Amino acid sequence: MSVTPSDLLHNKKDLNKKIDVEDIDLSEISIEDLVFNKKNYKNYINLKSLLEGVSTCQISDAYNGISRRSGVIKELKPINRLRVWGRITTCKTNSDDWGTSALAIDEANDGDILFIKTNNSDMSVWGELASTCAKANGVKATVIYGSVRDLDALYYMDYPIFACDYAPNAGSALGLGEINVDISVGDMTIQPGDFFYGDETGVVIIPQSLFKQVMTQTLAIKVKELGIIDAINGGKTLSQAAGLK
Prior knowledge:
globular, Glucose Oxidase, domain 1, 2 domains, eight-stranded mixed sheet
């Protein structure tokens, strides 16, 4: 049986399709559905529709309701105020070793978030050249628990960056750090493959084992908040809409 061009166009998947929040179905999703693999179109679109419409605030609230943890790393701030999500590739190095950051770019999977922890913020391990290379290699964003530089370029790049600090000086291409290992930040342990969500407010990290549960709760919070907004628009006060009166 021959396939015509019109058949191909008819069967083409619209990866930009968006589902209304009340119609989102997360019953069969997994963390693997963050990336489209040609077999998970329904789950991918449902999950993408949710993540495009929520925030770190709602995801943190959902995670807190499940685990009594926020998932937030307060020191990390958005450099260029871009929203992004994905699974984490981890990297651990000293601030005088930007070479490990370069090696980590090659190890990250397509669509991953590169999370780099340094021992301090004295020197930068990331900047314009690394961002340009990472984006070209399919990395979605970089998170530096430490310092970045080249802010004059990073501010205007279409590549999300989150960091604790910035400094103009850099170390050397030593390549002495570790990639895809568990890393500790405060009382949080971050494992390769965990879920990252970042926006203008900050960042949230969710253990991959709780991903589906947290996403389901995030959807419930989103629906509830939309109902409160509708009630306020209908003339109720916030206290009334929230059930305080």
